């Protein structure tokens, strides 16, 4: 398994300090925002949240390998990717609150996406976005654009036919795509050992004629370098890569799950000791690029900034009920126009 940062924060390869500090900042913001979204759900202010705690290196590292014109087909647990793409925190919060400033107007569960940032909203059915991502990548190739697609999914998705059909097609037609399988060890309560008999999910790429690589998903530098290589290869027209980022979901599957029913505290504790944020911090401290004072300030600023952003977002009014009738037809048919009229008379 490809690793650059050892668990103690040693590295043979010394990446640019500015890049490391920027990734560190984004990982901290993603962690703090994730915890706030959990709290908001518990306060009854948002419907559901799929937490990303523990998966920050996999998301941030791979997203940093993209150019700004590249396209993201995420899963629903990709908050760190959105933070790395510099989506404003207010957009993510408004989305979750489903208020009038929600860029998706209350549609589609709690997943985020926005064409402005070239992020396609994640689907809830497992793996169905993989064929779409491949089709989209092929359209970029036919249009002779130099843009590439990055497509995130979980270990559970590798058991669906969609995954195999899509990877096969991508291999045959050399689609400009990077598949990132975020192996967080579980598909809700099903451990990866019940999902597959292979040791590493990356070997599945071999059957489709392209390269697969497993990386330490808690090592942001390894995730970044592996993704950068894969993105450059796709951009050169040399086809897809499957990256398996081996990591762990520290929290529940979603706010509607109780993981204590299917896994031990010791296992969670073992993975907490491999925390991706702590690992990068150890590296930064070792190289004298960071101090504990600066660290404390960063966490405090993240907490304050996000708290204030949430307060501001909560001032937005709710969506008008008739908005559920919008965005299906370019020219709404008569019955929807009548329904919209009825809705507005109710208010
Ligand atoms: C086709 C389908 N079957 C079942 C579900 C219920 N379901 C929602 S998420 C999930 C597990 C997905 O696990 P994985 O792909 O590993 O991603 P993770 O949530 O762990 O990040 C399941 C079974 C679903 N959404 N779609």
From TrEMBL:
Q: Which GO terms describe its biological process?
A: branched-chain amino acid catabolic process; sulfur compound biosynthetic process
Molecular function (GO) terms for this protein are:
oxidoreductase activity, acting on the aldehyde or oxo group of donors, disulfide as acceptor
Q: Does the keyword Oxidoreductase apply?
A: yes
Reading the lineage from the top rank, the first entry is: Archaea
Query: Which keywords accompany this UniProt record?
Result: Oxidoreductase, Pyruvate
Q: Which InterPro entries match?
A: Alpha-ketoacid_DH_E1_comp, DH_E1, PdhA/BkdA, THDP-binding
Segments forming domain Dehydrogenase E1 component: 25-321
Q: Does the keyword field hold Oxidoreductase?
A: yes
Among PANTHER family, the record links this protein to: 2-OXOISOVALERATE DEHYDROGENASE SUBUNIT ALPHA, MITOCHONDRIAL (PTHR43380)
Q: What is this protein called?
A: Pyruvate dehydrogenase (Acetyl-transferring) E1 component subunit alpha
Its gene? pdhA
